[in-house]
Amino acid sequence: METIYHYTDVHGLFGILNRNQFWLTDNRFLNDSTEGVYAKEILETHKKKLFSQLDETAQEKIYTALTISTPFETGEKVVFTGSFSTEPNLLSQWRGYCSKEGGYAIGFDFNELRKLSEDYDISSCTYVAEDAVKLWKSLISDFQKMENKIQESILKGEPERLIVESLREDYIQFFLTRVFLQIICKHPDYNEEKEIRIIKFLKAGAKDIFFHPSNAGLSHINRCKNEQNRPR
């Protein structure tokens, strides 16, 4: 994969070429009504398989960690995404992102975009249920490892405060990965899009969050400055 494409109208084209930047949209304002829901459905559907090797206590604890509301669901933090496709000429994308007057599919160097900033993640979306199952399984394994560390530390007689502090970053990464999983696992009905996403996590109310008019009213957007990689 060398080039990925961003579909937009003339206003989006002007902003990208003139200001060398594009905008990421608050995930809650995206067009897909199944956004973030499909991955949860996969978890529920395959729950028995995913938890088959765990005792009842572990199942309950891990399931709670996988389903409890995160700051991104309570509104304390916000996920912003920018949509790209590996396909340069998709009717569904022209319809979804371009105006009646016409639109543009702007090509970007994928590898250069990956260097954009440490503040952004870039990932292909998956539309395969089994891929989502594997991602949930990996997340369950990560949680088990953290729990094992806790038990080992307790047996060593380490103070609870130090145990919690030592695993703080691990737990933060666990919940970020959980949110990330829900963002990149999309319903198979959208498979044609072949979507690549740029993703950024921000605290609600951050100074670089702006309002933008959309079909749904006012939506949140975040500016993604592209200092080095100009579109093709």
UniProtKB/TrEMBL annotation:
Domain of life: Bacteria
Protein name per UniProt: DUF2971 domain-containing protein
Organism: Microbulbifer okhotskensis
